Amino acid sequence: MYFLYLDDSGSVLNTTEHHFVLGGVCVHDSKIYYLRKYLDEYAQELSPESPDTLEFHASEIHSGLGPWKGIKNRKEIIKRVLRSLTDQYSKTAAFACAVYKPDCATKDPVEYAFEDICSRFQMFLDRIYRQTREKEKGLIILDKSIYENVLQKLAISFRQGGTRWRIPRDLIEVPMFLDSKSSRLIQLADHIAYATFRRYQADDLTYFNIIQDRYDSDGETIHGLSHKQHSMRCTCPACLRK
């Protein structure tokens, strides 16, 4: 079974930001323990006295907010968290949808991104079946937010009538929501979403380059990264390899 942990980056209402991102990590149940162990051990290294209370929150680390105030080499901390994905290469993949808000004035960016990722997650599960003849199921887990009720209702409608692209028939339940403080995998999802957001919002490849080859792909086609825009000339991997 595969679990897709998701978090968002960017604000829907902030008019100074032109992108909103929903992204995260898809993990087979056999790999969850190892990813969590990697991040727990890194938290222990950074905060030996209270590792369990240390939350890896990418935007706070990048900006030096909260417990990260005055900490040096903060960018290296984010990179180290992201490398947990590259170190667990087998049966893990990144997913993200970046929505260019000016082109989506008639759509809710959160709902638009969620529908896109649900469809791509089902595509991922379909491809596993074609390649291995093993039928895998999936479950989406998100950080707790004000969108909890909206996305659960949306997931029910997808199950009944499908997304605009396909029916997510192998998602076994509506999305679950966890507090990021208690889930290292949600914290990793936060870092993937933030790395993607920095790439599109600020043209900053510092973090994106670490995970660029970990977005779900099939040959030269990238399925795990999408850029929802139609008014700009874009040379990002998602737009170039459609």
Q: What is the secondary structure topology, with strand pairs?
A:
Blueprint: E1 2-9, E2 19-28, H1 32-46, H2 58-63, H3 74-87, E3 92-100, H4 109-132, E4 138-143, H5 148-161, E5 176-178, H6 184-202, H7 208-211, E6 217-218, E7 221-222, E8 225-228, H8 237-240
Parallel strand pairs: 1-4, 3-8, 4-5
Antiparallel strand pairs: 1-2, 2-3, 6-7
Report what the structure shows.
The chain is an alpha/beta fold. It has a single domain (2-240), classed as 2-Layer Sandwich (Nucleotidyltransferase, domain 5). The protein contains 8 helices and 8 strands, in the order E-E-H-H-H-E-H-E-H-E-H-H-E-E-E-H. It is globular. The mean pLDDT is 90.
Largest sheet: 6 strands, mixed
Counted by DSSP, the helix tally is: 8
Strand order of the largest sheet: 5-4-1-2-3-8
Overall 3D geometry?
Answer: globular
Specify the helix fraction band. 40-55%
Shape-level CATH architecture: 2-Layer Sandwich
Keywords:
242 residues; two-stranded antiparallel sheet; 41% helix; six-stranded mixed β-sheet; Nucleotidyltransferase, domain 5; 18% strand; alpha/beta; 8 helices
